[in-house]
TrEMBL record:
Growth hormone/erythropoietin receptor ligand binding domain sequence ranges: 16-98
The name this protein goes by in its record: Growth hormone receptor
Species in which this protein is naturally found: Eudromia elegans (Elegant crested-tinamou)
Kinase keyword on record: no
Gene: GHR
UniProt keywords, alphabetically: Glycoprotein, Receptor, Signal
Length: 154
């Protein structure tokens, strides 16, 4: 009986790996965002256009298709400034004509993950007599995608 239950558990987790899943949605600067997904192991879904990412804003009545499947790369949907509303919740779902594979809801402010800073430099200012402690000065520039003039990223 234990062997049968173990086999059932394995097949269930294998099934989960087979289905396409939304892996993340990310906004680098609160003005645009992208959602990414994995194809899973279902081979008949690998043809371009077979899987669609649909989205809906809180007050919408109908699901709409991804506005841009190209800009953010393979298995992604990019929402430029025309499609991004910062304080309005979104729901996104991966689907084909017959079924929904995955669905997530969020607001853009919850998915902000800025690009890393550039030109990172540090200078050793002094060290303690024992050499164990030191003071350093760190300098960096914001990433090119950060709109620091508007104050979204400080």
């Amino acid at each position: 009986l234990a062997l049968v239950c173990a086999n059932d558990t394995l097949s269930t987790s294998d099934d989960l790996l087979r289905w396409p899943q939304i892996s993340k949605c990310r906004s680098p600067e609160l003005e645009t965002f992208s959602c990414y997904w994995t194809d899973g192991n279902i081979y008949n879904l690998t043809a371009p256009g077979t899987i669609q990412l649909l989205y809906m804003k809180r007050n919408d009545e109908d699901w709409k298709e991804c506005p841009d499947y190209i800009t953010a790369g393979e298995n992604s949907c990019y929402f430029n400034t025309s499609y991004t509303s910062i304080w309005i919740p979104y729901c996104v779902k991966l689907a084909n004509k017959d079924e929904v594979f995955d669905e997530k809801c969020f607001s853009v402010d919850e998915i902000v993950l800025p690009d890393p800073p550039v030109h990172l430099n540090w200078t050793l200012l002094n060290t303690s007599q024992t050499g164990i402690h030191g003071d350093i000065q760190v300098r960096w520039d914001p990433p090119p995608t950060a709109d620091v003039q508007k104050g979204w990223i400080t």
